[in-house]
């Protein structure tokens, strides 16, 4: 060895060992049951509130003008969504899965809502406000009926029996595409105003990844509040550009995306207003629309299952027992019922961006998310103050999505540690399900954007909606294909069980199987006596 030209020393045996498999994520600063100190918890809760605002504003901005509403109606719908999201998040964290999951507005329900907007029976209403009210009542009726699906499937324990068959291998495409599948909301949104979106993206990565790496400090301040810092800096910069007249002669579209005063929310929002059930009038019911909304509800149920699994990982909890997932889905159904009663124009599901924020901050504490729900309710009632935060330019939000959705996608990939990647069966199921999960919705979305309607175009509108909604969801298609293949391809021999990672999750299939479940998922106020988890 002395000549310098000798062979490298043989690596030690332990260096060649692969990384150990962990059923709980380590390196999380505060896990699900350990809250940070109050000042930090309140700031982290506010950060969660800021992150969920994006979807809360984007959906009404897309839907309300089509429904015939103006800025006044838009501001009221945003407030209503915020209020109901706060309630749903509290219900989910106290009685549902008890995971730190934010329950917010869901894109899945947008397609059936647009279908209701385009329904023939509203086309002869001339007054836009009247039209808005009629369409809103139609969506409310459809949501109320659709909520029954999740309530029944969740609380009856039916979903528990389905999830029991979910192996780590089938969970990978479902969870990964719950994050990666939202790629259309990332950079395309940033590019709508690149001079605001790109600095936000770069600054967020510098603050959350590079600065902590360079500082070597024990206290994680910069990375934990990277979203707050970067959004504040870039928002002020965007405001200065607006005031300085940078967009005076820009095209109207550029002005809409770049200017900080274009959302129309601050002027239209009332100072104080409490949203209440049936505020738009009595809901109206239509069987076909209810079926279409039910399809969306089913898709949201599957997507939320993936998001719940991601949240449990970032909260450093054990894999979610099927009975707890089922309970969470039941409470989410009650959440959709609240959406229908209050009139939010869209249903709700687990907020993917907030699941990603748990990964970015390394804080998976339940209390933080409960505090964020408090912020949602507080700012939904104090309309003007809430509207100020809600008017963050969309490219800033899209830049956050680039990182937050990526965290959820990567947590999906992390379940591959339980699988045998050298097995051809694993390679086939993994590759085919991810590919189809991207490819099938791509066809449906492309066809719709060109033709104005989906590939399934029969005389029955409700049937078209059902098929088009189901196959436009990337996590649903990928999860369904993986689940089906994984459970039908020669699964009986022991080697296959090991390949798909099934044995790793065996002891989490029942609530009593692992004593850590009690700590993470048991209900408060001794309610487990009355509602035992199996």
From TrEMBL:
Gene Ontology molecular function: transmembrane transporter activity
Keyword flag Membrane: yes
Membrane topology recorded in Swiss-Prot or TrEMBL: Multi-pass membrane protein
Transmembrane segments: 46-65, 77-95, 101-120, 141-159, 165-186, 193-213, 225-247, 368-390, 396-416, 428-445, 465-485
Keywords, sorted A to Z: Membrane, Transmembrane, Transmembrane helix
Subcellular location as annotated: Membrane
Entry's Gene Ontology cellular component terms: membrane
Pfam families the record matches: Xan_ur_permease
Family, similarity comment: Belongs to the nucleobase:cation symporter-2 (NCS2) (TC 2.A.40) family.
Protein name stated in the entry: Nucleobase-ascorbate transporter 6-like isoform X2
Gene: LOC120262279
């Amino acid at each position: 060895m002395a000549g310098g030209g000798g062979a490298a020393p043989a690596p030690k045996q332990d260096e060649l060992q692969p990384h150990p498999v962990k059923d709980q994520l380590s390196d999380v600063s505060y896990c699900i049951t350990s809250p940070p100190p109050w000042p930090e918890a309140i700031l982290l809760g506010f950060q969660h509130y800021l992150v969920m605002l994006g979807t809360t504003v984007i959906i009404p901005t897309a839907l309300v003008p089509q429904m015939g509403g103006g800025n006044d109606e838009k501001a009221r719908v945003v407030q209503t969504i915020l209020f109901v999201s706060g309630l749903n998040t509290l219900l989910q964290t106290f009685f549902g899965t008890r995971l730190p999951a934010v329950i917010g507005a869901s894109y899945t329900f947008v397609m059936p809502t647009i279908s209701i907007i385009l329904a023939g029976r509203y086309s002869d209403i001339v007054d836009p406000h009247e039209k808005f009210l009629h369409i809103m009542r139609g969506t409310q009726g459809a949501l109320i009926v659709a909520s029954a699906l999740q309530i029944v499937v969740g609380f009856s324990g039916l979903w528990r029996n389905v999830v029991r068959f979910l192996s780590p291998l089938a969970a990978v495409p479902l969870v990964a595409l719950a994050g990666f599948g939202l790629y259309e909301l990332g950079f395309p949104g940033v590019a709508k105003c690149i001079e605001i979106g790109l600095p936000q993206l770069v600054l967020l990565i510098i603050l959350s990844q590079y600065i902590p790496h360079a500082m070597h400090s024990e206290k994680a301040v910069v990375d934990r509040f990277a979203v707050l810092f970067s959004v504040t800096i870039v928002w002020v910069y965007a405001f200065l550009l607006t005031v300085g007249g940078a967009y005076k002669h820009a095209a109207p579209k550029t002005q809409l995306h770049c200017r900080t005063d274009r959302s129309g929310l601050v002027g239209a929002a009332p100072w104080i207003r409490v949203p209440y059930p049936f505020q738009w009038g009595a809901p109206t019911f239509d069987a076909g629309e209810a079926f279409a909304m039910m399809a969306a509800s089913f898709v949201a149920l599957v997507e939320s299952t993936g998001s719940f699994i991601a949240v449990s990982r970032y909260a450093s909890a054990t894999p979610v027992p099927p009975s707890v997932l089922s309970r969470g889905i039941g409470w989410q159904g009650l959440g959709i019922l609240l959406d229908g009663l209050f009139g939010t124009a869209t249903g709700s599901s687990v907020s993917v961006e907030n699941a990603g924020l748990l990964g970015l901050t390394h804080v998976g504490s339940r209390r933080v998310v409960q505090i964020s729900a408090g912020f949602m309710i507080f700012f939904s009632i104090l309309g003007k103050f809430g509207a100020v935060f809600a008017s963050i330019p969309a490219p800033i939000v899209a830049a956050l999505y680039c990182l937050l959705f990526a965290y959820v996608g990567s947590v999906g990939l992390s379940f591959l540690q339980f699988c045998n990647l050298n097995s051809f069966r694993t390679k086939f199921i993994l590759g085919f399900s991810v590919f189809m999960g991207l490819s099938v919705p791509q066809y449906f979305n492309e066809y719709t954007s060109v033709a104005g309607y989906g590939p399934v175009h029969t005389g029955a509108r409700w049937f078209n909606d059902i098929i088009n909604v189901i196959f436009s969801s990337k996590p649903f298609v990928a999860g369904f294909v993986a689940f089906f293949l994984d459970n039908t391809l020669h699964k009986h021999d022991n080697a296959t069980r090991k390949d798909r990672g099934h044995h790793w999750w065996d002891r989490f299939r029942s609530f009593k199987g692992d004593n850590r479940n009690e700590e993470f998922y048991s209900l408060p106020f001794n309610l487990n006596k009355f509602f035992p988890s199996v």
